[in-house]
Design goal:
Radius of gyration: 24 Å
Largest sheet: 6 strands, mixed
Number of strands: 27
Strand content: 15-25%
CATH class of the largest domain: Alpha Beta
Helix content: 25-40%
Shape: globular
Length: 599
């Protein structure tokens, strides 16, 4: 069928619905509702779709559109659930199960007849992770079912007036209900509130005299202090005491009214240390007297102090509950280097620490090394939010890209073991190319890949001119980077971008990767494969050294970064600051608003 997607943003779910409907042979176009009702009307008039689907819509469809065409709304709640904060309420209420409903658009919000509904379990993860994984899996299943039913022509959608449907209206979950009382709330309550707003809108709070939004939360089992006190920093995150423990907060967003020149999500420590902050470096002032590993809370500080920088543990005992964004484990002949960065974005220090961790992993006696393997994002390339906030964004772009290239090159030059990239979730731009540097790419079936850079006005680097044609052929590589469209995991496997699909739920992905990696390490031909890999790398280096690919790519990127008129700068700023830009059809600039990475 000819299907038109209407969305408020071409976010992860819209991309996945687009890709999977295309895989099923439908002709799919996209229009962004952010460009106004007239843009939607024009798209409907010109494209004349047989069916209109809204995977993620924050505004109402024009009445003349839904009254004249069948329009299906994807609502992230079970049948009867109504309101704009469905997933937020599911997390706040500790619901063990939730659902996605595809319903027909009508005048009353979320009140239309139900075309399909699919339930899902709610694990203890952040809202954005839940949205991109369990909720996304259910949404795609519901959309495909609804489309089949619509095409069949005999299905009668169920009115919500049916007695079996329990209608519950849930208002917008406002900041008053999200607010943390650090003196009263226990750690689990704090974590639930932080996780329920990790992407948007964040939890409004006060830190060192300024109102800020806190994004994301992870438990800490040893550091202690007065409730609300800032205790320490680690890898850009800050640790804050609760009444019975502590939590790590990876990112902070200054409130726009604060006067901060960069009012968007960034690593928490960098926001607190920014020149805009009255206490600047070291977080002096109301932060208090630092941290104590267990024991009694420290005494109040008599004068301002600097927060201690805690080491980033690479290897952790199984019983530890603390936050680290990079972790190494070894299971027999398998090394597992897992990493998880907010929004999948990797800034300069992320890349440098990843390279250090990768070199450590290479020093261990293994025959198989797995990169990734966690649920949710693999990587989305360089960190646009950090770049946008830098005093010199061009210079930071260049530094960040070179650090990313260093990591990718290290993977490409590994010849003494097999390297596997295990993608539990989405990847884009340089993140896809990081995966392609490995010998095998394993991908959860729910992931979406964006193997291109064009929609951010970039040529790209990370050795894509070597790895992408090597995997899919020159013609397909050219099509991928010029069309710049999202690719489902299944389609990626079909063209050679992915070696093995992993058809499991997000929660089961890490264990399945461990099982698959152990089987690979036990394979009788593993030694032969490693030897052949080393010989191939030696031959390829003679034909054209890796340095030639890198130098050629970086020449393009240097010209873009340091040209103030290059579209990249305006596109980056619009993306980070969530300002609509570009044409709405057939595809919008590809990205997940607020992640700070190229998507």
């Amino acid at each position: 069928m000819d299907i038109l997607l209407v969305a408020s943003a071409f976010n992860s779910l819209t991309q996945r619905v687009y890709a999977e409907l295309s895989d099923h042979g439908h002709r799919v176009d996209v229009v962004l509702a952010t460009h106004g009702a007239d843009e939607v009307r024009t798209a409907v008039r010109e494209l004349r779709p047989e069916l209109i689907i809204a995977p993620m819509l924050k505004t109402a469809l024009p009445e003349d559109v839904w009254s004249e065409h069948t329009c299906l709304i994807v609502h992230p709640g079970p049948p009867g659930d109504r309101g704009p904060s469905s997933l937020d309420w599911a997390i706040a209420g500790e619901a063990p199960r939730w659902g996605v409903t595809v319903l027909q658009a009508e005048a009353a919000m979320d009140a239309g007849a139900v075309w399909a509904a699919v339930p899902f379990s709610v694990p203890p993860v952040g809202k954005s992770d839940l949205y991109r994984n369990e909720a996304s899996d259910a949404a795609v299943a519901a959309v495909l079912l609804a489309v089949r039913r619509y095409a069949d022509g005999s299905f009668k959608p169920q009115p919500q007036s049916d007695p079996s449907v329990r209608v519950v209206w849930r208002d917008f979950l406002r900041q008053e209900r999200r607010r943390i009382d650090w003196e009263v709330d226990d750690t689990e309550t704090v974590l639930r509130r932080l996780r329920g707003a990790d992407s948007q809108p964040g939890v409004l709070d006060e830190l060192l005299g300024r109102e800020m939004f806190l994004h994301g939360g992870h438990p800490e089992d040893r550091l202690r202090g007065r409730p609300g006190e800032l205790l320490a920093t680690r890898a850009g995150a800050v640790c804050r005491a609760t009444r019975d423990g502590a939590v790590w907060i990876p990112e902070i967003r200054p409130r726009k009214s604060s006067g901060d020149r960069a009012p968007f999500r960034r690593p928490a420590a960098s926001v607190l240390a920014s020149p805009a902050h009255p206490s600047s470096r070291g977080f002096s002032g109301r932060a208090g007297g630092g941290a104590s590993e267990g024991g009694l809370p420290p005494r109040p500080a008599a004068r301002p102090v600097r927060l201690p920088e805690m080491p980033v543990p690479l290897e952790l005992p199984a019983n530890r509950r603390t936050w680290t964004d990079i972790r190494y484990r070894q299971l027999g002949d398998v090394g597992l280097l897992t990493f998880s960065f907010p929004g999948g974005a990797m800034h300069t220090e992320h890349c440098r620490r990843m390279l250090t961790a990768y070199r450590y992993a290479l020093s261990r006696p293994t025959s198989v090394l797995v990169l990734g393997g966690a649920r949710d994002f693999f990587s989305n390339g360089i960190h646009l939010n950090v770049i946008e906030a830098a005093a010199d964004p061009a210079a930071e772009s260049w530094t960040n890209l070179n650090a990313m290239d260093d990591l990718v090159e290290a993977v490409l030059r590994t010849t003494d073991r097999l390297v596997v990239a295990a993608l539990g979730g989405n990847a884009a731009a340089g993140g896809v190319m990081l995966a392609l540097a490995a010998d095998e790419v394993w991908c959860r079936t729910g992931a979406v890949l964006n193997p291109h850079y064009r929609r951010m006005g970039l040529y790209g680097s990370e050795f894509w001119t070597y790895t992408l044609p090597r995997r899919v052929g020159a013609e397909t590589a050219e099509r991928l980077v010029t069309e710049a469209r999202p690719v489902s995991a299944t389609a990626a496997a079909g063209i050679g971008l992915v070696d093995r699909l992993v058809p499991v739920a997000a929660q089961e992905f890490p264990a399945e990767v461990e099982r698959m990696a152990a089987a690979l390490a036990d394979a009788p031909d593993l030694g032969r494969r490693i030897t052949a890999k080393a010989q191939a790398r030696e031959r390829q280096e003679v034909v054209r050294p890796l340095a030639h690919y890198r130098d050629a790519e970086l020449a393009h990127m240097h010209a873009i970064f340091f040209d103030p008129r290059a579209p990249y700068h305006a596109l980056r700023s619009a993306f980070v600051r969530k300002v609509p830009s570009g044409s709405a059809r057939p595809l919008a600039p590809v990205g997940e608003p607020g992640t700070g990475s190229i998507l």
